[in-house]
Amino acid sequence: MTTRQKLRIGLFGYGVVGQGLHDVLNSSCGFKADIVRICVKDPLKKRRIPMEHFTFNRNDILNDDSINLVVELINDPDAAYEIVTGAMKRGKHVVSANKTMIANHFRELVEMQTKYNVSFLYEASAGASIPIIRNLEEYYDNELLHSLRGILNGSTNYILTKMHNENIPFSQALNEAIELGYAEKDPSLDIDGFDAKFKLCIITCHAYGLFLEPEEVFHYGIRNISKFDIRYAKEKGFKIKLVPYVGKTNDNTITSYVLPRFISSDKYLYNVDYEYNGIITEAAFADKQFFSGKGAGGHATGSAVLSDISALSYGYRYEYKKYLQGTVTNYTRDFRIEIYLRYKNENDRELFNFEEISEQYHSNTCNYVIGVVNLSRLYELRHKLPDMDVFIINTGRKDIN
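Above: the chain sequence. Below: its structure as tokens.
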């Protein structure tokens, strides 16, 4: 029988997720770990537990030799990087939920685990309550994975659900998401697709063994969505979801992107609404599998953090099996994709270089076209798109390439 390591935790951050972790840790019957000290930024903020548990100096945790696990749950990616690397250099294990920090320093952080002989776990960074990383590491370690796609951002899914169900404008749905704590006061990471892209980059490493720089991956969010787009989708029997995708284009090459997508009522993701996430894997032997769970909220994310802490007590660490296998070696954006483009100016439409057009519509107030473009062209336009009066949706149709 494996002996469990006694964990003494230094916790950074006591916001929604930090408090959620505290709750689920205290409610766990089969596992106990001590939170020795909690580091927070604001000394004036009222806390629900006595102030003697808190510190405002990160070194009180990093330099405490009795603490063997640092759990990092703060919003600031730069500060998180300093905390995580500082902890590993001191021989402390780390659990993190900071997808921005991990995606932007991924290869370095993985290499540091080996250098300092520590575990670095981050299940909560990619799918909130869905254990997708552990499944990719253990279940799909030798499986021929064709593709992975899904809803990885609870904030945007909540907004899109409210717009679809209640016919309210984007701004109102966004404000509700902020009030409920599903989106930050500065929601740009969510609504512009960055959050989903960072999660996709993390998942890609475990699914295919490639470390992608986030800048390499095309992403497009929902900021410019309009009631016209929602109405069009409903008339056609679709919902609109923000769906990151990664998949093989041949035996050793993958592509990936983040785009809003039309979802028909016969698809798994159609009924994944509000703050829930859903992930679909397609593989050679396991065929299609679907995972669903809460994608926002303190207890949902805290449960994934607790799972990492429990696994770490048994000495668990990711093995990066697909990376070591080295089967996938190339990344491409030369990939044809069919999109719906709602636009106002013909000059904007011409920038997309449509290869084929299957449907188009013109009116005094709005135009749209459905046709095939190359992902590499969307990537070339990525810096112009936020300022253009357009909205793009992946139709989700297959057999284009």
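The chain is about 35% helix and 25% strand.
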